[in-house]
Amino acid sequence: MIFASDLDQTLIYSRRSMGVPEGSEGLVPVEWIDGKLSAYMSESALQELQLISRQITFVPVTTRTVEQYQRIRIFQQEFIPAYAITSNGGNILIDGQVEASWNERIRAQLSKNAAAPDEVMRLFKPVMSDEWVIGGRLCDELFFAYVIQRDNMPLEAVMDTIGQLDSLGWEASIQGRKLYLVPSAVNKHNAVEHIRQLVGAEAVLASGDSLLDRCLLDGADYAIAPRHGELYREQQRNPELVPYVFTEQSGVFAANEILDYVRTTYQALTGEAAS
Questions:
Q1: Maximum CA pair distance of the chain?
Q2: How do 178-183 and 170-175 pair as beta strands?
Q3: Residues 6+ apart with CB under 8 A from 133
Q4: What Rg value do the Cα atoms of the chain yield, rounded?
């Protein structure tokens, strides 16, 4: 079995997204930026993840670039997954190294099925301003990520522009203070399916909180999402369209329930207990 999980606001949490005070018990520091502690994980969830990973293939799946993923110290030094997916599916790491053939395949698909980044910028630039866009960049030459002041965003104009992305082979996701513009061919589901074929896994269990995780959860055999984030808000608006299991807790300790779900699902499939 593969456990393919988003990281930010699913397994690991910044100070802003934890939902509990920084000094709360049961937290483990996992990421530093320029020497400053920036993110935590539930200690219980980490222990369960390490335990269950003896039987299943754990695959971190993130929109972070390769460089940003490598900042997460816990997955670089103490608990190193054999496979990881970064750049929203644009890159696959095997034993820490980018799999060149996958990246080449993605770029070939983009040349056929998606508009160039410059064309997307020509569409979006008229609605962007310093009043709501703090900064951004083209990540790994694959997709755009912007830090925004969401309250200042001209919602109607932005949503109208997002509605035009489909014709260019792109899509958008607004996650808290981030706006992502991503080619549809760069997605987490396809990358996980590639790893499923590599390892010969029969089942995939997925977790994630954002709309960019939706294809990952939709394509999995089992899916669970935390009680926060875009997917949860969408479930509140359209319950019948978001048929996943959701945790009872929100915030950093939702990861405990996610790992409990992984363990019980594995046991139900195999009749074995994690050891």
A1: 57
A2: antiparallel
A3: 146, 147, 148, 149, 179
A4: 18
Terminal-to-terminal C-alpha distance of the chain: 15
Among 2, 1, 141, CA closest to 60:
2
Calpha distance 39→32 (Å, rounded): 7
- Judged on CB neighbours under 10 Å (0-12, 13-18, 19+), 94 is middle
131 neighbors 152 (Cβ within 8 angstroms): yes
Alpha helices by DSSP H, listed for the chain, are 43-52, 66-69, 100-113, 117-124, 155-162, 188-199, 214-218, 229-237, 254-270
| Closest by CA position to 208, among listed 9, 20, 2 | 9
Position 157, amino acid: A
Question: What does pTM read for this prediction?
Answer: 0.93
Read off the pLDDT of residues 32-89 as tens digits, 9 standing for 90 and up. 999 899 999 999 999 999 999 999 999 999 999 999 999 999 999 888 999 999 999 9
- Give how far Cα 178 sits from Cα of 38, 47, 92, 148, Å: 16, 30, 23, 6
Q: Which residues contact 104 (CB under 8 A, 6 or more apart)?
A: none
